Amino acid sequence: MTLTGRATASADGRDSTEPRIAAGEVHVWVADPDALDRDGTLGGYRATLSQPERDRAAAFRSEADRLAFEAAHGLARAALTWCAPAVTADAWRFTTTPHGRPEIVGQPPLRPLRFNISHTAGLVACVVTLGAACGVDAERVHRRADPLRLARRVCSPAEYARLVPLDDPDARADLFFRYWTLKEAYVKARGYGMTLPMNECDFEIAASLPAGTPTTVEGRSVARFGPRLRDDPARWRFAQWRPGPRHLLALAVRREPGLPCAVVVHPAPPPLP
Hints:
Elements: E1 2-6, E2 25-31, H1 33-38, H2 41-48, H3 51-58, H4 63-83, E3 94-96, E4 102-104, E5 113-120, E6 123-130, E7 134-140, H5 148-154, H6 157-163, H7 169-190, E8 201-203, E9 215-218, E10 223-225, E11 236-244, E12 247-254, E13 262-265
Parallel strand pairs: 1-13, 2-13
Antiparallel strand pairs: 2-6, 3-4, 5-6, 7-12, 8-10, 9-11, 11-12
């Protein structure tokens, strides 16, 4: 996976109706829902939501959960319009697969836009590609929680064996969430949700993870899949980073033969035209 750093906010000189995304590119946006609300961006995003999305948002009892839902879905619409400026943010229409993965309605079959969103307390994320299956997972690391009970179910035996000897609860929680976000991003990219056995994904990752910059996790040496997944880890590229001190973000993208896999992390949420 090639990391191209952060996208520039300057105009690229192309016709505003031309797609800004090319095959082999992976565009990622992250944002704080509260910050979007404070600066007024969320109000614009909220106006682009469909009536079913507004109804779902209104059903949340928690104000924080409602803001995160609106921010994630508004961010997705703005990001898709950034990639394809000929379509306004409120014009995108979506359907869901039998396992709940959102897909765009009415696209050409050859290299359609693919996207995925994630939201957690204090962070929303969106990834967009041209044709490549993709998944993103954002999590706030709960350092006080002991993850071993859940780890028995979702971690591979090798991953679980690495967690158990860690005496520091913060270190154990951090490593567990690193495994969890990579697995979540992968199963979301596959489009089968929790029906895929997470413990069949085995990641061998470095103990430290720097903040801010995506770190690649790729190849058979660090990702191994069990037979029930019916998949080849060599076909996938993973990245993981800390967008802030309390959050982890993981990305999974299916590699297309003959194409690069260039991750572009945008410095700010996309504005609405």
